[in-house]
Every structure is written in structure tokens, then in C-alpha cells.
Amino acid sequence: MKKKTLLFLVLALITGLIGFTGLSFSGIEVVRVMFLIFADLVIVSLMAKLFFPDKPKVKYQPVKSE
Question: ∠ at Cα 32 (28, 37), nearest 5°?
């Protein structure tokens, strides 16, 4: 989910622009609900990045034997 933050942000922006710019058609309420869902997913994924950062990659080094 942490890798999808940018996708959720773009989807929230697109549905927000469609849903709240004054357009009126039969499915506008669905678009507004989708905006709320995507906005919540953006917030959750940003909080996941903040509280659970990626663990550093461990690089194994060979041990020289004598």
C-alpha cells in the first residue's frame, strides 16, 4: 500500500475535479464517494510511510577464511 500513494493521490485529484466542479449527471454521487475513498487511502498510505519506514537492505559480505 505504501507504494501506491502516488496512484491514490492522482485518482483522488481526478475524481475530486470531476465531482466538485459543478458537473451534473446521474452518477455524480458515485464519483464523490470515490473521491472520499481515494482521499482516505492517500492519508492511510502516507501514515503507513511515516510510521512504518522501509527497512534498510542488508548487504551480506563474505567472510574470508584462513
Answer: 145
Nearest to 20 by CA among 34, 8, 10, 4: 34
What confidence tens digit (pLDDT) does each residue in 8-37 have?
899 999 999 988 888 888 888 999 999 999
Please choose, from the candidates 27, 9, 5, the residue with its C-alpha nearest in 3D space to the C-alpha of residue 18.
Answer: 27
Q: Give the cell for residue 54.
A: 522501509
Q: What Cα–Cα distance (Å) separates residue 57 from each residue in 3, 32, 39, 51, 54? A: 17, 40, 31, 18, 9
> Residue 42 is placed in which grid cell?
492517500
